[in-house]
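Appendix B, record 7
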Amino acid sequence: AFEVAERHGLSLHTCVDATRAVELALRAAAQGKRAVAFVPNDQLHAAMNVLARDGVERAFGEGRVVIVLEDNPYLSSAACPLQSASQLDLPCLAPSTVAGLRIGIQDAFRVAQASERVVAVIAHVGLLRSMDTLEMEPNRVLDRVDAALELRRNRRPTRGAEREEALAIARRLELNQFSAMPSPGEMEPWGMIAMGSCVMAIRHLLEELGLSGRVPLLALSMPHPLDSASLVRLLSRCANVVVLEPRPGVLAREVLQVAEQARRGGEKIAAIWWDRLPSDGAFEPVLEMNDATRPSILARKIAHLLSRIRPSLMVQERLLDVVEQTERIQVPDR
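Structure tokens (predicted):
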């Protein structure tokens, strides 16, 4: 791997901790280079302290820094990457697939180039432990049409006297995507807002149940800064909206602030749910950490909500019964 990297002009460095990795990335950016630093979740606070001290307001010239933050809620429940990056006002991207992680780092450098800021990429631990077959693209383009398309895809934001806001770049790159949005004036009973690995979980669930195109979904690839216009568009066309995230309550707080501002402006906004969901008559489902990243668990928690969209769905009958012996197993603390 090191030989292939050197052949393509890349330098790989293994560091003793995340603090050293961030310091080397900032030093490389000061020399006009592009640098990516990986930060494990249990070393998040130390890395953010270095970034707050040396990297947030520093001018790097042509250099750019992207910080990949591991999100492992079970291992580090008190260290939330999205919350820490938001406190430093860093633009955050949250890819949902292995291929999306590769593209997300490329998009992060585009955002960093235009906004002249350090950009964070939040990668869930389940994503980092996944494998996928990536589609390889040609290194050379043969005809003029393909060349024009390639230049259009890879062109960087124009450099001007003033830097460009991260939200403007996100809208141009279409990082936050809608699906199954109702027309103006229509009102759907339930909608979903998902980020990171939760996007693939809810999409897989809707596809398996035959509800693709029936449930409005806003997939957030840039959870910070939030695109309030996109949020209000969804919240004003649904009666209820569920926020799906690995750590319930972090993204939901930002969504609630946008919803409250829109409500004060006279908009009719949906009821927002994130950890405690509406009761199904027998019990009140609760979304715990990482529940929204697993389609099987998510299906059991929101089955009664999806049945309200299509009463003939019979979600529970399609789920395997939980083995009582498995439920009695004592799982040690992680």
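Remarks on this record: Strands lie at 34-39, 64-71, 92-93, 119-124, 177-179, 188-195, 217-220, 238-244, 271-273. Residues 98-115 form the longest helix (18 residues).
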